[in-house]
Amino acid sequence: MKIAQKQNNDITIFDINGDIDINSSPDMREVFENIANAKTMKVVVNLSGVSYVDSSGLATLVEMLKKTRSYGGKLRLANLAPKVKSLFEITKLEKLFDIFDTEEEAGANF
């Protein structure tokens, strides 16, 4: 898995490529720990390059959301592949996360 970080004004965007699973979740958690420590207020996670998420990946995303909310920040998900979006619907996590079709939409809805 690869994580690229970029800025768009006051929004931090993470482009994730590869599976989010038990092997890659610790790396993702480490990257987002830095964001939480910096108290980044607006975060978009672009999942366009992700075709598979396992339970540890879901747990990591939920943890990221909780940490971001704990200091008043907001986290948005964008560009979920149909299989990944279906997983969020099955687990009812689409009710917990703000999910958008595009990175631009996610950034415009803070």
Explained architecture:
The protein has one domain: STAS domain (Transcription Regulator spoIIAA), CATH 3.30.750. Strands 1-2-3-4-5 form a 5-stranded mixed beta sheet. 40% of the residues lie in helices and 27% in strands. It has 110 residues and is of the alpha/beta class. Helix 1 packs parallel to helix 2 (55-70).
Key attributes of the depicted protein:
single chain; about 110 residues; alpha/beta; 4 helices; five-stranded mixed beta sheet; Transcription Regulator spoIIAA
Mean pLDDT: 96
Number of domains: 1
Question: What is the overall shape?
Answer: globular
Question: How much strand content do the residues show?
Answer: 25-35%
Judged by helices, strands and strand pairing, the structural class is alpha/beta
Number of helices: 4
CATH domain fold name: Transcription Regulator spoIIAA
Element layout with pairings:
Blueprint: E1 2-8, E2 11-17, H1 25-37, E3 42-49, H2 55-70, E4 74-78, H3 82-90, E5 98-100, H4 103-108
Question: How do you describe this structure in short?
Answer:
The chain is an alpha/beta fold.
